[in-house]
Amino acid sequence: MYVWPCAVVLAQYLWFHRRSLPGKAILEIGAGVSLPGILAAKCGAVVVLSDSSELPHCLEVCRQSCQMNNLPHLQVVGLTWGHISWDLLALPPQDIILASDVFFEPEDFEDILATIYFLMHKNPKVQLWSTYQVRSADWSLEALLYKWDMKCVRIPLESFDADKEDIAESTLPGRHTVEMLVISFAKDSL
C-alpha cells in the first residue's frame, strides 16, 4: 500500500479544480491510501472512500489515511467491483467518482464499469475522473465503454500542469505514461 504515480496526477487534477469541489459528493473507488479522496475532502467535498470488501487490510489503510490527515469523519466502505452489496445500494448519488489506477488488470475492467454504470443511474450527470498508467497498447476500454453506453474524454496533462516528471514536489509521476480520463454517460440525459 503506497501512493501510485496515477494518484499524484489525479490529485493534481483535483487541486486544479479545487474551487469547484466544496459540497460535491465524491466517491473514491479502489482508494488504497486515498490521496485523491483525502485531497478532495480537504478541499471541502463530502467524500466516501472505498476499496474491496474482500480486502479488509485495504479498508484499514483507508481509515488510517483518514486519521493521519485529521479526517476521522470520512466514511469508508467496502465495495467489490461487479458485486451488488448493501454498501453499494446505500450510497447516495455522487457528483464525481474518483479512480486512480484501477484499470490495472484487464479482467477487472468490465466489473469496474458495471459498478460505475450502476452508480451513474443514481445520478446520470456523475463523472468518473480516472487516471491510469499505460502498461500495454493492447489494452483498451473503448469497446466496454460503448457496451455500457459511456463516453470518454482524454484530458491533456498539460492542461492542469501534470505533464512534468515531478508534481507538487513529488517525483512519483516520473517517466510513467499516465492518462487522465473523464468518463460519463454517452447520452446527455436518460
TrEMBL record:
Subcellular location: Cytoplasm; Nucleus
Entry keywords, A to Z: Chromatin regulator, Cytoplasm, Developmental protein, Methyltransferase, Nucleus, S-adenosyl-L-methionine, Transferase
Reactions catalysed according to its record: L-arginyl-[protein] + 2 S-adenosyl-L-methionine = N(omega),N(omega)-dimethyl-L-arginyl-[protein] + 2 S-adenosyl-L-homocysteine + 2 H(+)
GO biological process: chromatin organization; methylation; regulation of gene expression
Major subcellular site: cytoplasm
Gene Ontology CC entries for this record: cytoplasm; nucleus; protein-containing complex
Top-level EC class as recorded in UniProt: transferase
Enzyme Commission identifier(s): 2.1.1.319
MF annotations from Gene Ontology: protein-arginine omega-N asymmetric methyltransferase activity
Subunit structure: Interacts with HSPA5, HSP90B1, TUBULIN, UGGT1 and UGGT2. Interacts with TET3. Interacts with STPG4.
Family, per entry: Belongs to the methyltransferase superfamily. METTL23 family.
Function: Histone methyltransferase that dimethylates histone H3 at 'Arg-17', forming asymmetric dimethylarginine (H3R17me2a), leading to activate transcription via chromatin remodeling. Maternal factor involved in epigenetic chromatin reprogramming of the paternal genome in the zygote: mediates H3R17me2a, promoting histone H3.3 incorporation in the male pronucleus, leading to TET3 recruitment and subsequent DNA demethylation.
Protein name: Histone-arginine methyltransferase METTL23
Organism: Pongo abelii
Lineage summary: Eukaryota, Metazoa, Chordata, Craniata, Vertebrata
